[in-house]
Amino acid sequence: MFEALSGRLNGVFDRLRRRGALSEADVQEALREVRVALLEADVALPVVKDLTTKVRERAIGQEVLKSVSPAQQVIKVVHDALVEALGGGEADTGARGLDLNAPAPVPLLMVGLQGSGKTTTSGKIALRLKGRDKKKVLLASLDVHRPAAQLQLETLAKQVGVASLPIVAGQTPLEIAARAMDLARRELFDVVVLDTAGRLAIDEALMAEVAAVKTFARPHETLLVVDAMTGQDAVNTARAFQDKVGVSGIVMTRIDGDARGGAALSMRAVTGAPIKLLGAGEKLDALEDFHPDRIAGRILGMGDIVSLVERAAETIDRDEAEKLAARMQKGQFSLEDYASQLKQIGKMGSLSGILGMLPGIGKMKQQIEGANLDNGMLKRQAAIIGSMTPQERRKPDLIKASRKKRIAAGSGTSVQEVNKLLKNFDDMSAMMKRMNKLGQKGLMRGGLGALMPKGMQLPGGRKPF
Q: Superfamily for 3-85?
C-alpha cells in the first residue's frame, strides 16, 4: 500500500534536499507536487486541502527556512501532518487494535458489504485473540442470506482452533445473536465475534438489520470491514455505516493489492472512526494493528523497523534461531541451516513487504523489482535444497555438473537456479567466516563493508558500499 504515493513524495523531497537553502517559493512548489501526488493516490479532496494547508502553515516559517537542514524540517512537517490525517498525533493517541476492556463475554460486531472480506477477517481476529491474547473465542454467523455463509465461518473456526455457534436452520439474525450470547455466558467465553450479513450495495434493509442486532447485542466494538482496493468507494461505504449505524473502528482488507492508499488517508477525516486493523492477503495470520506514525514513516521512505521486529518476534522460532546462531558462530553453517533460514523468512510474509519496512529501501525499488524477489523464489530455493541428499546438504562441494542436473530435475527448477543458490550460500558462508575472524571490535572498525565478499553486487550491478 502507498507505493505510488511514496515514490512521488520521495522524488519531491530528493529535489528539496539537493537545493540546500530553501525559499518560500521552493516550499510552495514542493507543496503543489505533494498536492498532485495525494490526488493521484485517490485521497479525498477535502483531506488533501486540509493536509496541504497544515503543511504550508508550518513549513513556511523561520524555524524551517532558517534551520540547518530545511529539507529535513519540511519532511518532518509532512510526516506530522500525515500522522494526524491517519488518526494519530498528540490530540488523538487512542489505542490501536481492539478494545476488550469490558466484562466477558465481550461482543464484537462485524459489519460491511458483501465481498469486503468480513467473514475471513472474523476468522483472523479469532486466531489473533486466541494466540496473542489467550482469549476463549466464539464465532457466530448471523448471515442467513448468503448461501453457505454459516458453513464458511464454521470451517474457519475449525482452521483457527476456536468454537463456532452450532447452526440452526430457520433462525433470524436476532435469534442467532441471542443464542450466541447465551452460550458464551454459560460456557465462559471471553469474546463473541458476531459476523453479520452483507449486501452488494448499501440499502435500508441491510442497515435496519445491522442496527437491530447492534441494539440487542450492545457490542463493545462495532468493526466495519472495507476493501482497500475499492478506493473512494470504501470511504463512501464507511461514511454511510457511520451515519446510519455507528462504528467504533475500521478494518481495511486487501491492502497488499492497493498501491495508492488514498482510502486509508481519507478514512479518519471523513468518518471520524479510526482504522484499527489492516489485512494483507488471505492467510489467517495476515492481520496487523494500524499505527499512524509507522504508516507515515513507510510513506515517506523512513521504514518501519518496529513493526518488522514485532513481526519477527511473532513468527520466528526463538529456540531454533538461537541454535542456528550458535552454529554460525562456530563456522558450522550448512545448506540445512540455509533452508531453515528461508523457512523462517517465509513465515514473516512477502519479501517485498519485509523490504518495504526498511528505511531508504524506496530508492532501490527498481533494482529490487528487477531481482524478482518474491516468496515463490524462497519456495524454489527450499525445493532445490530438499532435492539434495543429506551428504550434499552438509558438503556442497560435492555438487558437480551431473548432480546439479539431478537436483534441478528433482526440484522442478533449472541448473542456473541451482548455481545461483549455491553462489548465495557461498556468499553467506564467506560472510560468516569474516564475522568470526573480525570479532566485535574489527566489525565496528570495518563496518558492514568488511563482511561483503569481494565482487559481491546488489541487484542492478551496484556494489553494496
A: SRP54, nucleotide-binding domain (1.20.120.140)
Beta pairing partners, 449: none
Q: How many residues are present in the chain? A: 465
| Cα 328 to the center of its chain, rounded Å | 30
20, three cell numbers: 540546500
User: Where would I find the H helices in 247-291?
Assistant: 262-271
Q: Which pTM was predicted? A: 0.66
Q: How far is CA 278 from CA 99, 126, 349, in A?
A: 15, 15, 14
DSSP 49: H
Domain 308-451 matching CATH 1.10.260.30: the answer reads: yes
Residues 6+ apart with CB under 8 A from 304: 294, 295, 297, 298, 356, 357
Decide the pairing of beta strands 191-195 and 287-289: unpaired
Mean per-residue pLDDT for 311-332? Answer: 63
Give residue 46's pLDDT band: very low, low, confident or very high (50, 70, 90).
Answer: confident
Question: Nine-digit cell at 384?
Answer: 532445490
Residues contacting 151, CB < 8 A, separation 6+: 167
Q: What pLDDT is stored for residue 190 in this prediction?
A: 94
Can the peptide bond before residue 292 be classed as cis, meaning omega within 30 degrees of 0? no
